[in-house]
Design a protein that fits this description.
- The chain is α/β, with parallel strands linked by helices and 127 residues long.
- 26% of the residues lie in helices and 25% in strands.
- Strands 2-1-3-6-5-4 form a six-stranded mixed beta sheet.
- Strand 1, helix 1 and strand 2 form a beta-alpha-beta unit.
- Helix 2 packs across helix 3.
- The longest helix has 10 residues.
């Protein structure tokens, strides 16, 4: 038998995330599936329902996450709202139409539905 693929992170252990990237996704996503298949156990991956996204985003940032990759249009809106982000600086493109957004304390990659290649999340969490 092969090695087990990493699954969604359980927040019950609440590990510190200082400086780490994390991926927050709602529902199935081709990009997230590619990340799981690439075997990125070092990157916290949280799949959630839209209702829990704000709470999870706040928890990740409170635990020190400074690079947050968000999959889905609805999830992206919820994260920006929950974190109270009203402005930021557009940074480097991770993929066509998907730039990093830098705030004072956080780098966000908001990936709307239908944007990005399947490897996007693998590449975005590699650094």
């Amino acid at each position: 038998m092969g090695a087990a693929k990493p699954g969604p992170l359980s927040l019950s252990s609440n590990p510190p995330l200082s400086g780490k990237a994390a991926v927050l996704a709602c529902g199935p996503s081709e990009q997230v599936t590619a990340m799981i298949n690439a075997g990125r156990p070092d990157v916290p991956l949280i799949r959630s329902t839209p209702e829990r996204v704000p709470e999870l985003a706040l928890d990740l940032v409170e635990r020190g996450c400074r690079r947050l990759v968000v999959a889905g249009t609805e999830a992206s809106h919820a994260v920006v709202s929950a974190l109270g982000i009203t402005s930021g600086t557009i940074g480097e493109l991770e993929d066509a139409g998907v730039p990093w957004i830098h705030t004072r304390d956080l780098a966000l990659l908001l990936v709307p539905d239908g944007f990005g290649e399947p490897e996007l999340f693998v590449d975005a969490t590699a650094t």
